[in-house]
Specification:
The complex is a heterodimer of chains A (about 80) and B (about 500).
Chain A (H helix, E strand, L loop, with lengths): L3 E2 L5 H16 L4 H4 L5 E2 L2 E2 H28 L4
Antiparallel strand pairs in A: 2-3
Chain B lengths: L4 H19 L9 H6 L6 H12 L2 H13 L6 H27 L4 H8 L3 H33 L6 H51 L4 H11 L15 H12 L4 H8 L4 H10 L7 H14 L9 H9 L2 H39 L3 H26 L4 H14 L1 H8 L6 H20 L9 H18 L6 H11 L5 E2 L2 E2 L12
Antiparallel strand pairs in B: 1-2
Helix pairs in contact in B: 1-8, 1-15, 3-8, 3-12, 3-15, 4-13, 4-15, 5-10, 5-12, 6-7, 7-8, 7-15, 7-16, 7-17, 8-13, 8-15, 8-16, 9-13, 11-15, 15-16, 17-19, 17-20, 18-19, 19-20
Classes of the chains: A mainly alpha (about 80), B mainly alpha (about 500).
Chain lengths: ~80, ~500
């Protein structure tokens, strides 16, 4: 039992895990270092714009994941 | 500020919150932990969205975050990012926690831990140590509430009276309506905070620049104080490593009220739907932070950075907006303190006193409701009035500890082999490291103390788990039928239906 763990069991599951990891990676180092510039975009500091992009990317990833889960739960021929 | 209107508006908010909290009971009997503790698992997606959102947006958003913007700059946005990541955590773990609660009757985080590891002692320990951070958090929010009443009344309501007033209101509706009161009042407070934050933010920008665009504020900051627009910030103390590890540690801190909120949902799907849209709420932070940036050049001599919004509002905004700001800030602090007070009472009753005194469920439910009164009167109120200087340190240690309980959740959601001794060893090791690196040698190499704690905690947890006995097979099976509905994976080889094989419980 010591080698058993919970991991995704389908290709969709792995893709969703990769998407979750990607949005988390987007908000931390080293990515945050790449956008760490004192420039403005749409009137806001680049880090602020990036932070809200990451935040809305989280919404998008979860919305897609909901769609996948509900599609898997529905009966298919 | 001589007008009486800010105080009147703030007190009207308190009265409305009280009314909503009292009416939230809606004829339900509050004599079971299922009802008083988790609202009969009845909350729909909109209420749950606002419950979690308002609970996570504390007075920090109205005072601390603008203060950080004022003193450090864009470094404050790590908070917005980790709050969004907490939604990812809620999306994945929330439905499983809800299913544990619904099938096994858990109403607290510690009761789930006690059940998974078949160790009431571990559950009680988790309840007690988690309550250190929870109480410190509730005290800080109460201090914030009392401070707002003090400012809005022009000093007429002293801090001690503000503490008594706010806690009395919360105590009455919390006792009568339990988690339903928290759900309804947080929904009201969440909407109020969103409106107030944007109204105050836009008005402040208009008064500072003559327009409504945030761009004019940041163009001036860029020209005069460019260091506020990048890390490590104007204070020079928010390095990439501290930004990153603070986000990770905060994301992995499974605070008990959050579990209670998940367990209050009407279904697992409700949690997913609420969590999906939860990050959208954090647009509430932006306008408040912009006021902090305005303060950099319009209020350069402030003694306390976290008063920047209040000071600016009182100097430049109409009294009605100042009153609404008071109400919004009070809403933020009350909506964050009441879930913590409720969850501490719930956990002390269910996870400490019930096993210790051998109480029935009915007596435990009755005792738990009453527990909020001594908890507020004997612990939270005196601490809030005394405002000990070490309170923030207690909170930091408490939150650092919260992240150290991670092994308990790894064993609940990912790794069936985890044992209670492994969890205990990991938690104690991680806690000691976190305490030492918060107090004696704060955040070595610019890395969050809680992250250092986890780096020692996790290896100890794994090694001790491997050399000690796991929980009984039937317990592991019922937990992992929920945590892994498609089966477990053997490392290096996928076996989707492995749980059906005799090897599953080996």
């Amino acid at each position: 039992m010591q080698r058993f763990v919970v991991l995704p069991t389908t290709r969709t599951g792995w893709l969703l895990l990769a998407a979750f990891v990607a949005v988390i990676g987007a908000g931390i180092w080293p990515v945050i270092g790449w956008i760490n510039r004192a420039t403005l975009l749409l009137g806001l500091p680049l880090i602020v714009v990036w932070s809200y992009l990451v935040i809305f990317a989280c919404v998008a990833v979860m919305a897609i994941a909901n769609h996948c889960i509900e599609w898997e739960d529905e009966p298919h021929e | 500020m001589n007008s009486v209107w800010p105080l009147v508006i703030t007190l009207v908010y308190v009265a409305i919150a009280m009314l909503i909290g009292l009416r939230a009971r809606a004829g339900q009997h509050m004599n079971t932990l299922e009802e008083w503790g988790v609202a009969g698992r009845s909350m729909g997606p909109v209420t749950l969205y606002l419950l979690i959102a308002a609970g996570s947006v504390s007075a920090y958003t109205f005072m601390g975050a603008p203060g950080w913007a004022y003193s450090k700059g864009v470094a404050v946005f790590y908070v917005a990012i980790y709050l969004a990541y907490l939604a990812l955590v809620a999306w994945y773990f929330g439905p499983k926690v809800w299913a544990f609660g619904e099938r096994f009757g858990h109403v607290t985080q510690a009761s789930a831990i006690a059940d998974r590891y078949q160790s009431p002692g571990l559950g009680a320990l988790a309840a007690l140590v988690m309550s250190v951070g929870s109480i410190a958090y509730a005290v800080l929010q109460t201090v914030g509430s009392a401070y707002i009443l003090f400012v809005m009344s022009g000093g007429w309501i002293p801090v001690w009276l503000g503490v008594v007033l706010v806690l009395s209101c919360i105590a009455v509706y919390l006792y009568i309506s339990g988690q339903r009161a928290i759900g309804r009042t947080n929904a009201f407070q969440g909407i109020l905070m969103l409106i107030v934050a944007w109204a105050v933010g836009l008005w402040a920008v208009h008064s500072a620049t003559g327009g409504l665009s945030f761009g004019a504020v940041f163009e001036r900051i860029q020209a005069e104080h460019g260091e506020f627009l990048t890390l490590p910030g104007a204070g020079g103390d928010m390095s990439f490593s501290f930004w990153t590890t603070s986000i990770i540690v905060s994301m992995l801190s499974f605070m008990p009220p959050v579990w209670t909120q998940w367990m209050s949902a009407s279904s697992a799907r409700t949690i997913r739907r609420s969590a999906t849209w939860l990050p959208t709420y954090y647009v509430v932070i932006l306008p408040m932070v912009v006021v902090g940036f305005i303060g950099i050049y319009s209020l350069p001599e402030l003694e306390r950075a976290d008063t920047v919004v209040l000071e600016y509002a009182m100097a430049h905004l109409p009294v009605v907006l100042v009153g609404l700001l008071g109400a919004g800030t009070l809403a933020a602090s009350m909506s964050s303190s009441e879930p913590f007070i409720h969850s501490v009472a719930l956990s002390w009753g269910k996870d400490v006193l019930q096993p210790l005194l051998g109480l029935s469920n009915a007596r435990t439910a009755m005792l738990t409701r009453w527990l909020i009164l001594p908890l507020m009167a004997l612990i939270i109120a005196p601490l809030a009035i005394a405002e000990p200087g070490s309170l923030v340190m207690i909170l930091l240690i408490g939150l650092g500890f919260a992240s150290q309980v991670l092994p308990a959740f790894i064993g609940m959601f990912f790794w069936p082999r985890a044992s209670w001794l492994g969890v205990m060893a990991g938690v104690v090791t991680g806690f000691l490291v976190t305490v030492a690196l918060t107090t004696l040698w704060p955040h070595p190499l610019g890395i969050h103390a809680g992250f250092w704690g986890l780096m020692l905690n996790l290896p100890v947890f794994i090694v001790v788990s491997l050399v000690t006995a796991p929980a009984p097979a039937d317990v592991i099976e019922r937990f992992f039928r929920i945590a892994a509905p498609h089966g477990l994976t053997r490392l290096g080889r996928a076996i989707p239906d492995e749980r059906e094989s005799p090897g599953w419980s080996r």
